Each structure stands twice: as C-alpha cells, then as structure tokens.
Amino acid sequence: MNPARRTRREFLSATGRSVVGAALLPLALRERQAPRRPNILFIMADDHGAQAIGCYGSRVNQTPHIDCLAREGMRFSNCFCTNAICAPSRAVILTGKHSHINGQRTNAETFDGAQVTFPKLLRDAGYRTALIGKWHLKSDPTGFDHWEVLVGQGPYYNPTMIRNGERIPHEGYTTDIITDLAIDWLRQQRDPRRPFLLLCHHKAPHRNWQPGPAHLTLYEDVTIPEPPTLFDDWSGRGRAAKAQEMTIAGHLTDADLKLTPPAGLNAEQLARWNAAYEPRNAAFRRAGLTGRELVRWKYQRFVKDYLRCVAAVDDSVGRLLAFLDESGLSRDTLVVYTSDQGWFLGEHGWYDKRWMYEESLRMPLLVRWPGVVPAGAVNHDLCQNLDFAQTFLELADVPAPPDMQGRSLVPLLKGHTPADWRSSIYYHYYEHPAEHNVARHYGVRTGRYKLIHFYQLEEWELYDLEKDPDELRSVYGDPDYAAITAALKDELERLRRMYAVGD
Questions:
Q1: End-to-end Cα spacing for the chain
Q2: SS3 of residue 120 by DSSP
Q3: Backbone torsions φ then ψ of 301, nearest 5 degrees
C-alpha cells in the first residue's frame, strides 16, 4: 500500500500505537514537549455544516477522522462566520478583518492580494508557506512559497489547477488530488529546518455534490433522518424567509439531483457513475412521486450526495493525520479543521447558506495541539473566523497588526477565557440581488439572543435561542422582549462603531 494512502486508523493499528497515549502523559511533560513555534496544518472544507460532523452530534453521518481531532484536541461549540458565503469568509480568515474593511463583501469582487495577510506575516517570520486546493478569490494567491489552486470553484473530477501561475491538468477525483498534493508538499517541499504553514482547502462538499468513486454507493440502502423543520412554512418570520429561492422542494436542479450525469467525466468515470445512478433514476421515474413524497425523495438524493462528498473529506483528514504520524510531525503540528461557513441540510426546507440563521452562521472548528490543548476539551465561548489570523500569528510569536479586528484564540486553547472576552458577535451579508435571493442583513448574536436587521426590507427579527433554538418564531415587537430588543440594538450599534461599519 502507498503510505500516503494509508488512513490514520490503519497506521495506528499497524504500529500498535494508542490514540489516547499522549493524553495520558503528565501535564508538565506534555508542556515540555510542546513546540514554541508549531507547524500549522489548516484544513478547510467548503459548506460543511457542523450538523454533518459526528462530534457535533450528527444524526445523519459519521466522520471518524475529523472526530479524532475533537478526541485529541478542542471542539469549539460556538464558532461563527462574519459573512456566510465562500470568498468573503476566505478573505476574513486571511486578513483578520471584516468584509467591509478587506473589500470582499461578495463573491463578485477580486481580492486585493496586496493587503496584509497572516500567511505573508508568517512567511516573513521564517515559516515555509503553502496553499493547495480551493482559493476562489480571483487574484493570484500572495504570501505563499508554493501554491496550487483550483480555477474558480473547480470541478469535482479531473480539475485543471494553477501551480504558481502555470495551469496543470489532473486526472481523478478532486478531493483525493488535493490530498495527494498536500502530502507531496509535506514530503518533498517543506524545509525541515523551518516550521510550516499548509492551507489545505477542499472544494467538497460544495454544490452540486458529486461523490467520488469510492463513495458512489454509500448510504445506498439507508434512509437519512429528516430534519424536523423540513416542511417549515416560514410563517413565524418576515418577508426575507418567504422570498428566498433555495428550497429543496422547488429550486434543486436536475444536475443537483443527478438526474443527468456530470460533464467532464472520462469514459471509466462515466461508466461507474451510470452504474450507480441509472438504476436509482429509473426507479424514481417509475414511482411518479408528487407533493411531500417528492420533496422527501429530493431530500434523500441531495443529502446522500452531500454526505458522500463529506466522507471523502473525512478520508482526506485521516490520510493527512496518518502522514503526520508516520513522518514524526504530529507532536510539533497544530491541526485545524473548519469550514468557510455552515450549511442548511434540509432545515427549514432549505439548502445553501448566506443567512444569519444558526445552520448557516455556525462553523465547525476543531483544533489539536499536542502538549498544549487537553484531549477532549470543549470550548463554549463566542468566536469567529475573524479570530483565526491573530491566533496563528500568536502561535508563531508574530505581533498582529493593530488594524486586525479579531482576537487570538490561544488563551481559549490553553483553557483560559479572558475576563473581557466578547459577549456578542457581528454578522453582515451583502450579496443581493444574487442567486437564492437572500436579502442583505446584519445583526448581533449573544449567548441567548439574536437580532437581525433586513435593512433593504426595513424589517427586524429577534430570536430567543433558549426557548426557540430552531428559530421558528421571531419575537420582535413582542412587549415581553422590549427591554431585550433595546439592549440588543444598542449592542449592535456599538459593534458597528467598533468595527467601523459604514452605512
């Protein structure tokens, strides 16, 4: 077997090592073993909702390799994005600044690569830096010694990638190719005398969810549980929720539902695809489903393909962790797993993201840092992708520029919540008019409440997340919440002033 293809489970089984052994070492010994400037492996999926990760309580799938990071490190239960769409989230992560400051409000802009980013600062501080996978910011990456990125969103099969400015064709499944390239860089191009920063950015499980050859028949004879809000009629919310165009019932295309095969497959790939999908599609056409039964079929088709793509990402994480173990890098490497934002898996009858509602707003964040982060730790403090840049800089003993707007998570990783840690977060979505017709909005979320302003519609929504975790009924305008509404509006304005948000 090619060592790069071995999963972490296979490696540990073969060598007889225990995944919990490090956690049983005395704390003082573990601290002495921790590197002063750790390597950083930052793995980011695209649109991977936390509710599709085992350690976050998934009812729909298992993710054993991603879950390993939670067992051996820290799971953040309240990590949120600032703007739930692909390019803006990536720009926030790179710069440590909100969208209105870094200039990437929507997917339409070209990222200004001349501005300060954490990879540039780490490279200047002696880190060897690399980016492999999805970029989606239109301009060429800057701050990296090596980069190989997909063109735009990139396809799920046979991608052309841009390697340091040169277009390189690849044959195979994109998730596997990105993983191969990341491991090849670690094996052949990193400088063992210097710490490294490797950003491994997956396309998966972004729409339209094309599974790889290894997972085409996964969940074949399984019925995935439906979310309780699959048939939500949005009666407890305002006009924005009713005007969206992202329903499973009405907006998934034949390509999304795999009623037509993907373009760009070679003959062997197409044959395997047809062998998996043609019998399913024939059975669907014979059934002649309508009404709610048709919605249920669409949900099963969509969610299974999504989860098949997630399975490939989980396998990728296993391969990367196995390589770190085999090469002796695990002890000195901080590993992060996240997604650029959350995702609707049928909740409220929706797919996609964009909203400040919980499924879209919440990001998974798992961090393993041997010798520093205790195994199995869970943090409940409010944090955002805005904080990632300053976290990585502090890990590398690099001062953060004073105009970065986040805050380092390093104290939280070490088990200490500063007394002045934030009690609220700010969110702002700008991309309208655009696909899915989600109105522009901004808002504030605290530990219990969420206030959203759909300013194009001149409407507000307020949710009591303790009493209404599914956000089914806005209590804005309810006299019982008048004082809370006033306090949240004051807090929202404070955040907008602090972050220098214009009109």
A1: 58
A2: helix
A3: -65, -50
Angle between helices 267-287 and 291-326 (to 10 degrees): 150
Helix (H) or strand (E) run with residue 38 in it: none
d(CA 225, CA 314): 20
Residue type, 370: P
Whether residue 173 contacts residue 312, with contact meaning beta carbons closer than 8 Å, is answered with yes
Does residue 2 have a cis bond before it (omega within 30 degrees)?
no
Instruction: Single out the residue of 454, 470, 53 nearest to residue 230, CA to CA.
Output: 470
The C-alpha angle with vertex 336 and arms to 335 and 340, in degrees rounded to 5, equals 155
Q: Which two tokens stand for residue 276?
A: 């998996």
Instruction: Answer positive or negative: Cα dihedral of 333, 334, 339, 342.
Output: positive
- Residue 169's DSSP bridge partners are 160
Q: Over the stretch 241-299, which tens digit does the pLDDT of each residue have?
A: 999 999 999 999 999 999 999 999 999 999 999 999 999 999 999 999 999 999 999 99
- The DSSP annotation for 374-417 comes to PTTEEE-S-EEGGGHHHHHHHHTT-PPPTT--S---HHHHTT--
Q: Name all domains of the chain by residue range, CATH numbers in brackets.
A: 3-21+38-212+298-415 (3.40.720.10)
**Contact present, 429 and 82 (Cβ < 8 Å):** no
Q: Under a CB-based contact definition with an 8 Å cutoff, are residues 52 and 345 in contact? A: yes
Handedness of CA 134, 37, 341, 206 (dihedral sign): positive
Q: How far is CA 416 from CA 372, 381, 385, 423, in A?
A: 12, 10, 19, 15
Query: Using CA atoms, how far apart are residues 34 and 387, in angstroms rounded to an integer?
Result: 22
**CB within 8 A of 194, min separation 6: which ones?**
126, 127, 128
**Distance of CA 386 to CAs 115, 206, 291, 340, 427, Å?**
16, 22, 42, 11, 11
Q: 328's torsion region: left (phi>0), alpha (psi -120 to 50) or beta?
A: left
- SS3 per residue for 312-379: HHHHHHHHHHHHHHHCCCHHHEEEEEEECCCCCCCHHHECCCCCCCHHHHEEEEEEECCCCCCCCEEE
Mean pLDDT of the chain: 94
- Please choose, from the candidates 256, 307, 355, 317, the residue with its C-alpha nearest in 3D space to the C-alpha of residue 59: 307
Helix/strand/coil for 17? coil
Tens of pLDDT, residue by residue over 34-63, are 447 999 999 999 999 999 999 999 999 999
Residue tagged 């409940």 (tokens): 380
Q: In this structure, are residues 338 and 363 in contact, taking their beta carbons and an 8 Å threshold? A: yes
pLDDT score for 502:
84
